[in-house]
Write a structure and sequence with these properties.
There is one protein chain. The chain is α/β, with parallel strands linked by helices. The protein has a domain at 88-312: ABC transporter type 1, transmembrane domain (ABC transporter transmembrane region fold). 63% of the residues lie in helices and 9% in strands. It has helices spanning 2-7, 13-45, 51-101, 111-153, 155-164, 167-202, 204-209, 213-265, 271-297, 299-312, 374-382, 404-409, 425-430, 438-447, 451-454, 474-488, 504-517, 553-556, 562-569, 572-578, and strands at residues 334-341, 351-358, 363-367, 389-394, 397-398, 411-414, 492-496, 522-526, 538-543, 546-551. The strands form two sheets. Strands 6-7-8-3-9-10 form a six-stranded mixed beta sheet, sandwiched between helices. A four-stranded antiparallel beta sheet has the order 2-1-4-5, with helices on one face. Strand 7, helix 17 (504-517) and strand 8 form a beta-alpha-beta unit. The longest helix is centred in the middle third of the chain and has 53 residues, at 213-265.
């Protein structure tokens, strides 16, 4: 994961090279600063030099300090630009990946965890990219420059540095690996906690109705306390690592100081040289200590990177590269030719060897037990997933060759749980047709029988409904989704259990509405209720991903088979609605 994150820096590696150049300049300036400082102190303390003698040296020393400050600021700017460039690229690719992958890939993920990764996860990379990575470069440059100078100044001090400095990265890696494992666990816990909290907030109204909000408050408190304890455990490891690094650096500098002091007393080394080394050695260890501290600061970024790259590696099932468009205004004939699909290699087929033709302006119901492949067939037609085997055609064009943006404009789709965005009812309606006139909007609302809902709302069409329509009931959300279908006026309509959350009166009305839709459009409906089928011309029965029966409703009800068994299982009231 670390190596892959480093590869993300390649497009802006010139910024990293700039940081390396600043590190080289800083190392040289540190050596010059220590040299002039030692020269000034020796001149005053040993030789009792006058102010006029040391004034030029002090001016040079101040210029060096000012230059180091400017270089430190430039290094910080380059580091932040490096981080911003990589983060922007990753976030853009993540959002594009979400669009290209399609909704079926993300059904196994919690929406809270996805949001946490795209927003906070990418933000957490800033510390790693803007602090730890540049510090690695500085640690490679500054101690190298100082070490070379020390070798030519005093080989004994250089030997002590060479013996002690490898201990710092050794212990940093030893303790850092454990801290990294703990941080990854904590990041996973944070994702689950965020998803749970989002679910609670979205269902708060239902929890209040059933008197379960206090229990959930307690559960969230316990989860938060558990997360706090795991965070404290990770911090203990970070503090332990910092203690070890500080101790090693302090002991190493003490060894250097003792060696220099003993030789200074014995007259084997001069005062100016001794002072120079004592000033220079702390700057040799300082980058290593800073690297250890910034490594722990960047662990959250490394933990988030694991999740980010996992998302980027998902298959892009919904990515369309075709540019073909069928002739005519539609609807067009649709066909499944020996279509099979499975979600993972070596997994069972979700649908297998489906052969099905749907003429223009016809209607088809897909029925079967839960998990029989009905929604998967709709996903194949929507282009959310490609067929593992076989071809889905629109007219004479394989769906993979279609212009994907154009194709989605020809479809109106209502899922079992239609999503509504935070905003007003009018905002959500205009998602289907941004240029719709007030008359068209009013007509669509009336055909969806949503007008009676709007009449009860305080601000009518301009009533805010909250994220995912939290102010509306399940049936009202379904009606709003159907109103978008009427407003879009697309030639092909896909309905995935549209009668979900509707009462019997609304369901009876929906059946008449579907009948009206079938007059001018191609309608494909996934149904679990028999009462919604009689408006449709044909029924396809699926079982374990295979097409086991097909024909008009009246024919299927008369012959033995899976549909007959499902028919017997439906309620008498539903059967009566068909007569």
């Amino acid at each position: 994961m670390y190596q892959r994150l480093i590869k993300e820096v390649r497009p802006v590696r010139w910024l990293l090279a700039t940081v390396a150049g600043y590190g080289l300049a800083s190392g040289i300036l540190i050596v010059l600063e220590a040299g002039f400082l030692a020269q000034v102190v020796a001149a005053v303390y040993i030789h009792h030099a006058s102010w006029q003698t040391i004034a030029p040296w002090i001016a040079i020393l101040l210029a060096i300090l000012l230059t180091r400050s400017v270089i430190a600021g430039l290094t910080e700017t380059a580091s932040l630009n490096l981080s911003t460039g990589v983060e922007s690229s990753l976030r853009r690719r993540l959002l594009q990946k979400l669009a290209n992958t399609g909704p079926l890939v993300w059904t196994q993920d919690h929406i809270g965890e996805l949001i946490n990764t795209v927003i906070q996860g990418v933000d957490n990379l800033e510390t790693f990219l803007a602090r730890y990575l540049p510090q690695m470069v500085l640690t490679a440059m500054i101690p190298l420059i100082i070490g070379i100078k020390v070798i030519f100044t005093d080989w004994i001090t250089a030997a002590i540095l060479l013996v002690t400095v490898p201990l710092i990265p050794f212990f940093m890696i030893l303790i850092g690996r454990q801290a990294q494992r703990e941080t990854e666990k904590r990041w996973a816990t944070l994702g689950r906690l965020g998803s749970h909290f989002l679910d609670i907030v979205q269902g708060l109204e239902t929890l209040k109705i059933f008197g379960q909000s206090r229990q959930q408050e307690t559960a969230i408190g316990m989860a938060a306390e558990s997360f706090r304890k795991s965070t404290m455990a990770t911090l203990r490891l970070a503090f332990l690592s910092g203690l070890v690094l500080e101790l090693l650096a302090s002991l190493s500098m003490a060894m250097v100081a003792v060696g220099i002091g003993l030789r200074l007393i014995g007259g084997h080394i001069g005062f100016e040289e001794s002072f120079f080394l004592l000033v220079l050695v702390p700057d040799f260890y300082a980058p290593w200590r800073a690297l250890g501290a910034k490594f722990h600061d960047g662990l959250n970024g490394l933990a988030a990177a694991s999740r980010i790259f996992d998302m980027l590696d998902r298959p892009e099932w919904a990515k369309g590269t075709g540019r073909s468009i069928p002739v005519g205004d539609g609807p067009w004939p649709l066909s499944f030719e020996s279509c099979s699909f499975r979600y993972r290699e070596n997994a069972p087929y979700a649908v297998k060897a489906i052969n099905l033709s749907i003429p223009p302006q016809s209607s088809l119901a897909l029925v079967g037990p839960t998990g029989s492949g009905k929604t998967t067939l709709l996903s194949l037609l929507l282009g959310f997933v490609p067929a593992t085997e076989g071809i889905v055609r629109v007219g004479n064009i394989p769906i993979g060759d279609l212009d994907r943006d154009w194709w989605h404009k020809q479809l109106a789709y209502v899922s079992q749980t239609p999503y509504l965005f935070a905003g007003t009812i009018l905002d959500n309606l205009k998602l289907a047709e941004p240029d719709a006139t007030p008359a068209h909007i009013e007509e669509a609302i009336a055909r969806a029988r949503f007008d009676e809902v709007i009449s009860r709302l305080p601000q009518g069409l301009h009533t805010p409904i909250g994220e995912n329509g939290v102010r509306l009931s399940g049936g009202e959300r379904q009606r709003l989704a159907l109103a978008r279908v009427f407003l879009k006026n697309s030639p092909i309509v896909l309905l995935d259990e549209p009668s979900a959350h509707l009462d019997e009166v609304s369901e009876a009305w929906l059946t008449k509405t579907i009948d009206a839709l079938c007059q001018t459009r191609t309608v494909i409906l996934v149904a679990h209720r028999l009462s919604t089928l009689h408006a449709l011309s044909h029924v396809a029965v699926l079982d374990h991903g295979q097409l086991v029966d097909y024909g008009p409703l009246s024919v299927l009800r008369q012959r033995a088979g899976l549909f007959f068994d499902l028919d017997q299982a439906w309620s008498p009231a539903a059967k009566e609605a068909l007569r």
